Amino acid sequence: MTRPGSTEYDYDVVISGASLAGSAAAILLARRGVRVALLERRSDPAAHKVLCTHSIQACAHPVLDELGLLPDLEEAGAVRNEGRWYTRWGWIEPRAAPEGPALPYAYNVRRSTLDPMIRAHAAATAGVDLLLGHQVTGLLAEGGRTSGVRASTPQGEREIRARLVVGADGKDSAVAKSAGMPERRYANGRFGYLAQFRDLPLHGGFGHTWFLEPDMAYAFPNEDGVTVVAVLPDKKRLPPFREDLEGSFLAFVRALPEAPPIDSAERISKIIGTVDYPLHSRKPIAPGVALIGDAALTSDPLWGVGCGWALQSAQWLAEAVAPAATGRGDLDRSLAAYARTHRRRLAGHQFLAADYATARPFNPLERLMFSAAARDAAVARHMYRYASRLIGPARFLNPAALAKASGVNLRHRWAGAPDPQVSRTGS
User: Fold this and answer.
1) Which CATH architecture is the domain 11-54+110-186+280-351 placed in?
2) CB 137 within 8 A of CB 150
3) CATH of domain 192-274
4) In 251-349, beta strands by DSSP E
């Protein structure tokens, strides 16, 4: 338990990193009466992450709403992220049920638009001090727990004391490393490259994802008529990409089923990416420390979950620790509650993502669900809820869902239907 009144703090909470997770946490904590120092190592308020799917899953829509960002996103032209997914059984095209509610959504939006937007909201929030050009170089400790940070600033070294230090500083988190927080890493059997194209039409105007087993690709429409196209091949295909990145990238996209016509579009960015992007999970708490976003958990980029989970983990932390962060509760107990929520909501998703990151073909359960979703609208909607991280693996693979998928595939076999698109109505 935090010792009452034993330390004079500069702030209640110091957050390292003013990107999505850090800015969201600062806003949500400050609105709950917490005094927040939001540190960002870059000095430019328009700084943004470049290597990203630029997509926010529907699971984070409630957080965007609470942050007050929905009007700004709509005004900026962010694209509501409907989608269709290619499989060997045909296209999965989730659509709302007749007379039913619309499918939940969030947005595809480039980080060059999103990051400055949420950072500006944080800077304008009473109780938040946005400190640009401040990079955490170490942690302060007192009584066996973290009690603040050391930071390099434009004016020199500085110490900032706080009840809680939040690491929102990405997969290579300096806060996590300084605190010695346990980490588990998972190899990724794919590499990835992406580029941005202007005026690239997509069927229906929807985002596309290609499950090529084991290769992957996606194309997500964003604001201002820009589409992000990414390829994520098995690492066995890496040598030709190293020899000729542009030629290999373009040839891969041209060979996709219903390939987007990149040759008639304008490429407005370099082809960027990484040949090694391991997944990792860290214990998200230590005495006086919490991790959110990629600092706590970095998943496989092919699923596009990073932005959504950054926002959600910020919300879970704010809900759990706000009273204790102001000295009106047991901070350790509050941090433990955050860790339980983080584990309950994300551990199952991460387990399956790490398994699929081995670049293997679909397993029997995946074959069952993906094939049925290509043949039945109700199963497609169920898969959409899982892909949007609105439900977890246990609910996605519950006995009723497996029975439904099995029935769909049996009817398909009995009908002898060669066309995987035959059954699109569902129930």
Assistant:
1) 3-Layer(bba) Sandwich (3.50)
2) yes
3) 3.30.70
4) 266-267, 272-274, 279-282, 285-286, 289-291, 297-298
